[in-house]
Specification:
Elements: H1 11-23, H2 26-58, H3 66-69, E1 90-95, E2 105-111, E3 116-122, H4 127-138, H5 142-152, E4 158-160, H6 177-180, E5 186-191, H7 195-199, H8 203-212, H9 214-227
Helix pairs in contact: 1-2, 2-8, 4-9, 5-9
Amino acid sequence: MKALAFSGFRPEGLDLLIENRLMNSKPYYDEHKADIKRLVQQPMAELIEEVSDAMREIDPLFVLVPSKMISRVRRDTRYTRDKSLYRDHAWCTFGRPKGEHDSRPCYYFEVMPQSWGYGSGYYKATPGELAILREFVLREDKRFLEAYQAVRESPKFSLYGEEFKRSKFPDAREEYQPWLNKKNIGLSFDCYDFKPLFDGSFVRQMLKDMRAIAPFYHFLCAVHESAEGGAAK
C-alpha cells in the first residue's frame, strides 16, 4: 500500500481564509496568496491525488486535474448581492467534463469555518432535469430504486435542496416526497469534529462512504444523460 501523500489540512490555513474574507482587501490577498496556496490549495490537490484511483473506479469519466476541480478564492460578484471579494471556504468537485451548462452531477469535498464534509449532487439542476428525475421516481425506475436504497443504507447523509411549499405530487408515496419536491437535489454529510480533517484520518472513511452512495450519483447521471438526449431513458 502506498504511503499517503496527503496528511491533512492545517488549522492556520482555514484561519487564513476567514481572515482574508474579513479583510476583503486585494492588497491583503496579494500579500497572503502564496500562504493560501500552500496551506489550503496544495493540501486539496494532494487529497485529490490520494483519492483519484478510487474515484476513477466510481466513474472512469471523472476529470481529475486539480486546477479544474478546486474552487477559487476570489468570488464572482457579478450576479450576487453579497459583494465580498473572497471566500472563507474551499471545495473540490469530482465530475465529468463540463458541457455548455454546468448542471452535471458530481461528488464534492468541502471545508468551511464551522464544519467540513462531502457528498454528491447537482451544482444546479435544470428544470428539465428535475422533471425527468421526478418521472424516474414516479415510475420507480430501477436506477432510482437503487439510489433510494443506497440513501436509506447511508443514514449519515441527508438529502439537501430547497423544497416547494406545496407538494407537486401529493398522492405519491410519502417516502418519495423529499425526492419529488426539490428545486435542486444532492446528498451531504457534514462533520463538526475537525480532528480527522487536520490529521488526515478521514480519507478511508470518506472513500467508503462515497462508494456506498455511488448508486445515487449514477442515478443523477442517468437523469442528466436523459435530459441531454442521451441513451439513458
